[in-house]
Amino acid sequence: MAEEFNQYFSSCATKLASDIPASDDDPLRHVPESTTTFCLHPVEETKVLSELLKLKTKKSTGLDKIPAKLLKDSAPVIVKPLTHIFNLSMSMGEVPNDWKMARVSPIHKAGKRDNVSNYRPVSVLNVASKVMERIVHNQISHFMDRNGLLTAHQSGFRKHHSTGTAVQKVVEDIKSAFNAHKVTVALFLDLRKAFDTVNHEILLGKLQKMGFDSGTAHWFRSYLTDRFQCVDIQNKLSALSRVTCGVPQGSVLGPLLFCIYTNDLPKVVRKCSIHMYADDTVIYYSASLLNECEDAVSEDMRRAANWFKENRLSLHPDKTKSMVFGLPQKLRHTGKSVSVTDGLNTFEQVDSFTYLGVTMDPSLQWAPHVEMITRKLLAGLGALRRAKPFVTKGILQLMCRTLLYSHLDYCSTAWLPSLLNSNKSKMIQLNRLINRAARIITGSKLKDHKPIESLLAEAGMEPLTGRVKENTLVTVYKAVRNKAPPYLTQMFKWMSPPVLKVRTRAAAKQLADWDPHLLTIPQSNVQSFKGSLQFQGPTLWNELSIDRRRLTGVVPGMSASIVLLATSVLSCLGCVYLAYILYFILQDACIVCISTYVINTLLLIVNIKRVLIQRNALLKKKQ
Questions:
Q1: pLDDT band for position 500 (50/70/90)?
Q2: Gene3D superfamilies in the record, alphabetically (predicted)?
């Protein structure tokens, strides 16, 4: 059985890659020549020790049978020889052969269990090799982030990026189109075994064009080639088989290398918007006319199909779906039917599509997604009910967070605000399930007529409405502190200061009262736009108290304790403003914030001086 699986896994990707028609075009023609150079540099023992201590001890072991716990516990002893091996590997441009062998476990996906094609290979590499990969990964990521080499359209496996931010980006773009009375045609692409069919020579060529020097490219050639795998079924290993293409599955570097491999795909998509999370790609276009959208997506899809051919990747036409998004009244006017093609295939149009775990419908009312969430919540409630007689209340609360709130919180800022705004019946449906969970945890019955607020508090739970507002504010907080992708941080704009045309006391007071910590709320032309993050986020943010807005990260890295300490030590109000100014300068704050507090301080000093003069005058009269 192990041999049969191994033969299938090792030959499937190779056969698929060989079936792709050859292209006469250069696959590197869309990759710009880098003006900077990257080379792997030696690593210090302290860095290796840090990576060893970060190891998760429950990780599976590779073929060397050395567990992560052993490496972690013995880190102070092995760090010196391990650092020597890592540096020797990088200086010589060679990866140890024993670190290029993977143990593969077949995991059933769906369908008949006696069919090997219904299984997914999960590769496990030696732990020590993954420590070295992590060090190399950090060096590459730092180089690419510093030089802005990775496309902003890729959210996969990057700092501050996630599936949630990718979904949010696409949803916000579609809702912006709603607000402009436009429709959107989207094409969700599916690639066959994308990671497994990456061509090594093309990848190495792209690395060199991105600035990787010859020594580093030689190390990556050694890393990618002469790799072997065997299948493990119930501790019975198959023979080793060679892996000739693809990035190593189960590796640390594999996802980053795939992102580099597809980094130039957005360059061929000229009319449409494109967003990627690893190999999950969506192309979409918004316009007033449906025909215009259809033509634009088809035109860019033809270019993308040529790019796939040049780069030896295979599109799965049967799983690639098109979809039309628009408000119901707009779709009644424009129609709903489109025919998107790449020149060879016409892609099926669907009424709903699950993108990165979130089921989208044409009007983004989220009814199909709520139904999917409801099924998961009901299963979680059943588990809670069965576990209640045997576990403590604390365990039940933990189960509730794991089995219920994890589904509700996933990408919640993309879909839950819409329920609060325009689909309240679905919100009530979800709230009832949360209330049922609270009754299971507390043992309360419906006939007890206990208020929901006290019931949730007793169960250690929070209302869904409050939770979605909290998640929205957290997202805004990350965005204004630059802890989110650029496509989210650019969504929020600080409110501009008032323009003073005439210098009067009223105008001066208006400027003094201006709060630079307010966000601009975009104009909403349709009701559904009010459920978007770009509308809900600034609205909720501006509703916070002035102190919370000022102490909640307007300046990147702001520490509330510093300002509070200064304000407690310095008693006069003018000194409080001076404390803010001093802190902003130390934190390299924006000039708008600094200048605002300077103006406010000067106005305050003038007012204090005026009051003192008036008081002195009164004292003289009394005398």
A1: low
A2: VKOR domain
63-76 burial code (b ≥16 CB/10 A, e <16): beeebbeebeeebe
- CB-side neighbour CA atoms (13 Å) of 133: 24
User: In the structure encoding, which two tokens stand for residue 508, read together?
Assistant: 């001066």
Non-local CB neighbours of 513 within 8 Å, separated by 6+ positions: none
Separation between Cα atoms, residue 619 and residue 597, nearest integer Å: 32
- Of the candidates 248, 241, 208, the one whose C-alpha atom is nearest the C-alpha of residue 224 is 248
The one-letter amino acid at 494: W
Q: Nearest 5 degrees, angle CA 487-CA 489-CA 491? A: 75
Taking each continuous run of H as one helix and of E as one strand, the counts in the chain are: 25, 14
Q: Are 20 and 105 part of one and the same domain?
A: yes
Residue 474 forms part of a structural domain: no
CA atoms within 13 A on the CB side of 590: 13
Residue 547 covered by a domain: no
Look up the domain containing 304 and give its range: 149-199+247-359
Cα 189 vs. chain centroid, distance in angstroms? 19
Q: Is residue 562 part of a domain?
A: yes
Beta bridge partners of 243: 227
Query: Looking at 432, 462, 492, which one is the last position of a domain?
Result: 462
User: By mean pLDDT, which of 57-61, 310-314, 355-359 is the weakest?
Assistant: 57-61
Domain count, the chain: 4
Q: Yes or no: say if 584 and 562 are a contact pair by the CB < 8 Å rule.
A: no
Query: Which residue type sits at 134?
Result: R
Q: CA-CA-CA-CA torsion for 235, 240, 244, 249, nearest 10 degrees? A: 20
Q: Does 490 fall in a domain?
A: no
What would the pLDDT profile of 385-444 be if each residue is shown by its tens digit?
999 999 999 999 999 999 999 999 999 999 999 998 877 889 999 999 999 999 999 988
Strands 183-189 and 314-315 turn out to be unpaired
Tell me how far apart the alpha carbons of residues 86 and 88 are, in angstroms, rounded to a whole number: 5
Q: Which amino acid is at 497?
A: P
Q: What share of residues in the chain are helix, strand, coil (percent, to 5)?
A: 55, 10, 35
Please count the CA atoms within 13 angstroms of the CA of 337 that sit on its side-chain side: 0
What is this structure's pTM? Answer: 0.84
Contact present, 521 and 493 (Cβ < 8 Å)? no
CA distances (Å), origin 11, targets 106, 225, 478: 15, 16, 45
Q: Which amino acid is at 16?
A: L
